Amino acid sequence: MECEFAEEPPLLEELGINPNRIFEKSLAVLNPFHSNGHFDINLLYETDLAGPAALCIILGTCLLLTGGKANFGYVYGLVIVSCIAMYILLTLMTAEGILPFGSVASVLGYCLLPVVLLSFLGVISSLYSSLGFMCAVLAVMWSSLSASKLFASMSGDAQQRLLIAYPCALLYGRLPPDVSQVHQPILVCTAHIHWDPEFCDVKLIQTMMLSNELRSILEEASHSFRPGHKPDTNNIQLLLCGDFNSLPDSGVIEFLTSGRVPADHKDFKSLAYKSCLQKISGCDKPNEFTHSFKLASAYSEDIMPFTNYTFDFKGIIDYIFYSKQSMTPLGLLGPLATEWLRENKVVGCPHPHVPSGK
């Protein structure tokens, strides 16, 4: 029995996996400026997919740890489509005849190595910075140059290297996906602020309390997406809707749109709120209160002259705010036509044709 098993080949060899060849291919990828004589050209024609499969799994795992979402389907789907597209492109460009599809897929897969290293770096540290952007650009260029070098060696025409590098850059530029854009969470909030015009200080304080609570919710949600990491609320977009019972020139709207309001704002009515409000404000400056949301109103006064139309008041007191850094309104539902209001002699709502005042 022992002699029978002794004649069996090693498991990796039986599976067609050669660690030495995987290591040699990885070294060829790590140096995109090597000459053809520095590696075995036969490496490129081997249909070794063990290394690429492992890199895809590692990439998907890093994305899972980074963004808290499973992106394996995205990675596998994009890699398969890219392999087919690159195979067709190289077949049309090569002067050496048709290249094996497995070889094309193997080269593309091994050249994922710099992108996988970038994703691993993203697990350790956030890439949402200038340094992270530079690392991402470097990884994409590294992968693209390595792939174009190997494909140019296979096609036998080194002059096509830069031409091949362009579609490679398009591929590796989408790997890994921006975790803030894949299945991006959004927080939708509705609110109803105090109505009495005499209590503008109450309205402003309620709005500040609302922003503080929203910040807590976003930090808690961000922590659940990336356990063990510092909460990054920029990955969760905010859509804030509500009846704020405040005109566009009020302290409430100034606070929401500009992100700050001075401690001596007239809406505070010179009352001693400063010491209390500093506890819920995220600002270290003693003379102003701030929030971290970058908000913009979905419509302006020239588009929507009123959201409340009653007999004794007509104006904007209802709003829709969105995260202006990552969201753009594509369309708006406009107001009732003023001509229609005049023709039907509507001087205020509720009205038989318009049952609500808003």
Automatic annotation (TrEMBL):
Transmembrane intervals: 49-67, 74-95, 101-124, 131-152
Keyword Nucleotide-binding among UniProt keywords: no
Endonuclease/exonuclease/phosphatase domain span: 175-331
Gene3D superfamilies: Endonuclease/exonuclease/phosphatase (3.60.10.10)
Coiled coil: none
Record flagged with keyword Phosphoprotein: no
GO molecular function, one term: 3'-5'-RNA exonuclease activity
Keywords from the UniProt entry: Membrane, Transmembrane, Transmembrane helix
The protein's name in its UniProt record: CCR4-NOT transcription complex subunit 6-like-B
Species: Zootermopsis nevadensis (Dampwood termite)
